[in-house]
Write a structure and sequence with these properties.
Pfam families: HAMP, HATPase_c, His_kinase
Protein name: Sensor histidine kinase
Membrane topology: Multi-pass membrane protein
Radius of gyration: 36 Å
Keywords: Cell membrane, Kinase, Membrane, Phosphoprotein, Transferase, Transmembrane, Transmembrane helix
Oligomer: single chain
Number of strands: 18
Strand content: 15-25%
Largest sheet: 6 strands, antiparallel
GO molecular function: kinase activity
Structural class: alpha+beta
Distance between the termini: 86 Å
Number of helices: 17
Length: 581
């Protein structure tokens, strides 16, 4: 009995020795993972806030450039040379005002923000806007003139409203511009434009973004938690904020991760926050499950240790001998069950397992084939056109110009383009269909850029080949985007192909800026590795799909084009059956 107890004790001690390091390693790993997760979330949130802040700054800087452009307009220059003794304008002056109002209207409508432009003439004492022309208060204008963006609050209460204004004076550097300047142009927009962008930013997955400036106020999104935001601002006001800041703020015992980015254009801070509990809750739940599982495992191990000694030792040895013979590929091995217990069932299952091993091998092989096909589908699904917004921008512009023919042509080509990409369910398609799709894409780009010229030179034998869908369009798209759009003198694209030594060769040439030898070698090296965000997924995707379907002999090569740009070549084994046809 003492021998049995001693063996049981040794097994318990061994179990403890195994479990304690696991728990300690898990605790250390969890601690490090939490720290890394917080750092990565802070970095990710800061990057997203900086990107959004740059979008807003770019829009505001674009708006601030309008007055500088308008002040040099010939009609506005003519307007500031008018001297009127009468309170009424003559017919020529009225027509001039109408033209100025039309230009102000066009400028305002060029942005998706709601803006207002005002033209002041101190010599006339008149102000012209999009819809009105009249007199103005010189003292009020004098109070609004300041350098940079002027912000004033126009509505108090639950939804504060701010007016942002930018004033340009001609000539520059004059004293008392409200009385002495020849022309003053003022641009205004209200904070509802920024609030709209905050709402869209929040819809993209942000928690509760808002703009904050200590001496001015707060611009909330429309579904903001005002009470929580107020407490958060009180905490932020304690320590001076940096241009890019990440900190943890505790409110009512709840820690919040707060990220802030300062606008270099307006001086406002973009702030976003989220409760740490929402981020770390899955980790805490995982910890509870793990420690609970460790306790249960420990208790169960004590019981199993005793049962192993009493009932399992001999049957296990028999199973070990059977597995050793199985390891030696002796599939004739069988175990004779003794009694009617768990091990008799296990012995029967072992015998059944040996008989089914061959079937299992075949099943694993089929699963590998399915995984390979699934990866093909997944790689194919990554193909995604990048010019969707450009096409709709073209349609919008043509509609404003009442170019119905251009709108119809673009819409027709765009519908054919997306019908091919979204309804492609076949593993392979005739190359002629792929080329029709490429032609449709080039016609769309040709409508956008008149300088694009393309030529497709493929024989009927080549067009009859079956290829994976969407393998030619990414090459043509790269030629347009990286070759032609970046070179104002470029515009020619040529698609050609031939059969050579049992291989199909399809080439896309352009006369764009091209790449030097080092850049081409670096790009080819990237194609053989993992997908790089800087490179994009187009070329990498095509190369991977060709090699998965046709093997290592298929793929992409890149060299200098006779046209002066880049030549990208696809090669894959020819389908002899289609060539014979």
């Amino acid at each position: 009995m003492s021998y049995r107890t001693n063996l049981f004790s040794k097994m318990v001690i061994l179990i403890l020795i195994m479990l304690v390091p696991v728990v300690l390693l898990y605790w250390y790993s969890n601690h490090k993972t939490t720290a890394v997760l917080r750092d990565e979330l802070n970095r990710s949130n800061s990057n997203q806030l900086e990107f959004f802040q740059n979008q807003v700054n770019t829009h505001i800087e674009l708006l601030s450039s309008w007055p500088n452009l308008l002040i040099h307009d010939p009609d506005i220059a003519s307007f500031r040379r008018i001297y009127a003794d009468s309170k009424y304008f003559d017919l020529d002056t009225i027509n001039l005002v109408k033209r100025i109002q039309n230009k102000l209207s066009i400028q305002e409508s060029s942005s998706n923000w709601t803006t207002k432009l005002y033209l002041y003439s101190p010599t006339l004492g008149r102000v012209v806007s999009e819809r009105d022309a009249g007199y103005y208060d010189q003292q009020t204008l004098r109070g609004n003139i300041s350098s940079g963006w002027n912000v004033r609050k126009t509505q108090e209460g639950e939804d504060d409203k701010f007016i942002f204004s930018w004033i340009t004076v001609s000539p520059y550097g004059i004293s008392d511009p409200a009385a002495n300047a020849q022309t003053v142009i003022k641009l205004e927009f209200d904070s509802d434009n920024i609030r709209d962008m905050l709402d869209k930013f929040k819809d993209d997955g942000r928690h509760d973004p808002f703009y904050y400036r200590e001496e001015t106020g707060v611009i909330y999104n429309r579904t903001s938690d005002r009470a929580l935001t107020g407490e958060l601002m009180d905490n932020l006001a304690i320590d001076k904020l940096k241009d890019v800041d990440n900190r943890t703020v505790v409110i009512d015992g709840e820690p919040y991760m707060v990220n802030t980015v300062k606008s270099s254009t307006t001086g406002w801070y973009l702030v976003d926050y989220m409760p740490l509990s929402a981020i770390l809750k899955p980790i805490h739940q995982s910890n509870i499950l793990f420690y609970s599982a460790m306790i249960c495992l420990l208790l169960m191990s004590f019981a199993v240790a005793y049962l192993l000694y009493v009932q399992v030792q001999v049957p296990v040895k028999q199973l070990i001998r059977g597995f050793q013979r199985l390891k030696q590929e002796d599939y004739s091995v069988r175990i004779t069950p003794k009694g009617r217990n768990e091990f008799s069932f296990l012995s029967e299952r072992f015998n059944s397992m040996v008989a089914q091993i061959q079937q299992l091998f075949e099943h694993v092989y089929l699963e590998q084939i399915h995984v390979r096909e699934a990866r093909l589908k997944q790689l194919q699904s990554q193909i995604n056109p990048h010019f969707f917004y450009n096409c709709f921008s073209f349609i919008t512009s043509m509609a404003k110009l009442k170019r119905v023919d251009a709108v119809v042509a673009m819409s027709h080509n765009l519908s054919r383009y997306y019908r091919y990409t979204t309804r492609q369910e076949r593993d392979v398609v005739p190359l002629t269909e792929e080329i029709e799709f490429v032609t449709c894409y080039l016609e769309i780009q040709q409508m956008r850029m008149d300088r694009i010229r393309f030529k497709i030179d493929l024989s009927e034998d080549i067009l009859s080949q079956e290829v994976p869908p969407l393998i030619v369009q990414p090459l043509v798209e790269n030629a347009v985007i990286h070759g032609i759009e970046t070179d104002a003198e470029a515009g020619e694209i040529r698609v050609s192909g031939e059969q050579r030594n049992g291989m199909m060769i399809l080439t896309v040439d352009d006369d764009g800026q091209g790449m030097d030898e080092l850049a081409r070698q670096m790009l080819l090296h990237k194609l053989t590795g993992g997908m790089d965000q800087e490179m994009g997924c187009g070329l990498w995707n095509v190369n991977q799909r060709l090699q998965l379907r046709y093997g290592e002999q298929a793929g992409i090569s890149i060299m200098e084009s006779p046209l002066g740009g880049l030549r990208v070549t696809l090669s894959w084994p020819a389908d002899e059956e289609h060539l014979l046809e």
